[in-house]
Write the structure tokens for this entry.
Amino acid sequence: QQQVKQSPQSLIVQKGGISIINCAYENTAFDYFPWYQQFPGKGPALLIAIRPDVSEKKEGRFTISFNKSAKQFSLHIMDSQPGDSATYFCAATTGNTPLVFGKGTRLSVIA
Amino acid sequence: DGGITQSPKYLFRKEGQNVTLSCEQNLNHDAMYWYRQDPGQGLRLIYYSQIVNDFQKGDIAEGYSVSREKKESFPLTVTSAQKNPTAFYLCASSIAVLSGNTIYFGEGSWLTVV
């Protein structure tokens, strides 16, 4: 049973546009929701993370929106650039359990 | 430089052979992990270790084995029992297995069965 469902699987966005990736979870005990960014042939790296006590967190062009009642959270990339082209993973965890990852979204930003 | 070193980067294995992937970290982290990445499947947890001489199975542990004899090292053995071992393997570490702790990944090892 997949605990974190991520969509879309792939996304093409024009340079300067907004990229939006969505995730939904089922376990209401989850209390930490990070997003990881992975470039081809590299390991993922933490991009931004949020706790459920806030509805939004912004770092530069990257924003997480969190909807606790709907059990959904999303990543918004403003003014998307070709350098943002990568695979993005949402994840979730609680307590002393390892992160559970979504299946990933391959983002391509085209000029 | 501090970080996680995985070796080899590329590995070819014949069917029926065991192979061991190396993972070393100098971040002084207690927790270490092995994930498997397949196209469209995301990152799936194979094994993790919270402390030396202790480890737990993840979601897809069958056909794999690990050891944690030193804090810095967490090697993964892909045994002949693993039916579909061709994949990208990622080692990771964190201060502890605890919500809120950042997980840091190595650059991965590509394993191909020929």
Q: What stands out?
A: The mean pLDDT of chain A is 95. DSSP finds no helices and eleven strands in chain A. The interface with chain B takes residues 6, 9, 31-32, 34, 41-46, 49, 51, 89, 93-104 of chain A (CB under 8 Å). The CA atoms of residues 28 and 71 of chain A lie 8 Å apart.
